[in-house]
Write a structure and sequence with these properties.
Glut_rich_SH3-bd, Glutaredoxin, three-stranded mixed β-sheet, 2 domains, SH3BGR, Thioredoxin-like_sf, SH3 domain-binding glutamic acid-rich protein, two-stranded antiparallel ribbon, mainly alpha
């Protein structure tokens, strides 16, 4: 039997440095210890916001927050204390068993993209026994038309945890991006390769000559070549005219 599911409640509207650091700390600990969790952004997810308020005491609703199996285990200070005292297994109930049919009072909110850095998509953090529940297969998915550009790919496979799920780009898009950032040469190539892109094909066609190149070419064609004599005007015409 799996352990109770862990839900982490965050916000993309984190203007206070303390709030950002606490979110980063929780996410870093869970990822380092490879503990699966489901992130929610309360700034945009109303269902998750209602769940958080319903399950949490009124004086303990500060973010970031955690629910374990639908229960409130404690605030951030309690989480930090559990990490320092090596009691995270107890705090997160990792050694307990969980039966969704018996222990869950209602279905969890639908999983949505989270724009908080470090909040890895749940599809990559959730163990296999939870995936059928959170990611049910759509039998009609193969029948739905998909508009794709040739050669594009999902950028979230390379940039995890930035809310880019479903954003598709091509190699040309990546090259244009690094160009806009002021990168060129080897630096640009390294950046594109690190993002999963390929060779630059934007300038594969032969560029048309510039205006200055055309003027230079025309000037060279009118000048005599090396070793050629410059034609001399015939003076006989003027002599005959005088006579």
């Amino acid at each position: 039997m799996p352990s109770p599911p862990i839900q982490v409640f965050l916000t993309t509207i984190a203007s206070q440095p303390v709030l950002r650091k606490r979110q980063e700390y929780i996410l870093r600990i869970l990822q380092t210890k490879k503990i699966p969790f489901t992130p929610y952004d309360l700034a945009s997810d109303e269902d998750a916001k209602r769940l958080w308020k319903r399950k949490t005491p009124l004086d303990k609703q500060q973010l970031p927050g955690i629910l374990v199996g639908g229960r409130y285990p404690g605030d951030f200070d309690a989480f930090e204390g559990a990490v320092e005292c090596d009691e995270l297994d107890t705090f997160l109930r990792l050694k307990e068993t969980w039966n969704a049919d018996v222990d869950e009072d209602r279905p969890a909110p639908a999983v949505k993209p989270v724009g908080v850095p470090g909040a890895v998509p749940v599809s990559q953090m959730t163990p296999e026994h939870h995936k059928p529940k959170y990611f049910p297969k759509d039998p009609d998915a193969s029948l739905k038309p998909v508009n794709k550009r040739e050669g594009d790919f999902d950028i979230s496979t390379e940039l995890e945890g930035f809310g880019l799920q479903g954003v598709r780009v091509t190699d040309d898009d990546l090259w244009q991006l690094v160009a806009d950032l002021g990168l060129d040469g080897d630096e640009a190539a390294d950046m594109v390769n690190s993002l999963g892109g390929g060779a630059d094909t934007r300038n594969s066609a032969e560029p048309s000559p510039s205006r200055s190149e055309l003027k230079t070419q025309a000037h060279q064609e009118t000048e005599p070549g090396e070793g050629e004599a410059t034609p001399i005007a015939d003076n006989n015409v003027s002599k005959d005219y005088k006579h």
